[in-house]
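User: Hey, my collaborator sent me this sequence without any context and asked if I could get a structure. I don't really work with proteins. Can you help?
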Amino acid sequence: ERKGLVSLFGADDALIAGLVVAREEGMGVEETVRFSTACAWEDALHFEKGIRGRKAVEELLEKVQIKKLE
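Assistant: No problem. I've predicted the 3D structure and written it out in structure-token form, which is a compact way to encode the shape of the chain:
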């Protein structure tokens, strides 16, 4: 199995879908950014367009880091 980013095709769609889901679920701004980023990242890990499910996204959430700019 390949490791790392495989294809960015569709990652933008996954990012927007993650944004919509996060806002619908009432997530805060930072959590929304983390969730939508994890959706895009998960999509980019395989050739097929789309994410493999909520569990796959949640496994990446802890790895998404946000640093506030001053």
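In plain terms: The radius of gyration is 12 Å. You can pass these tokens on to your collaborator as they are.
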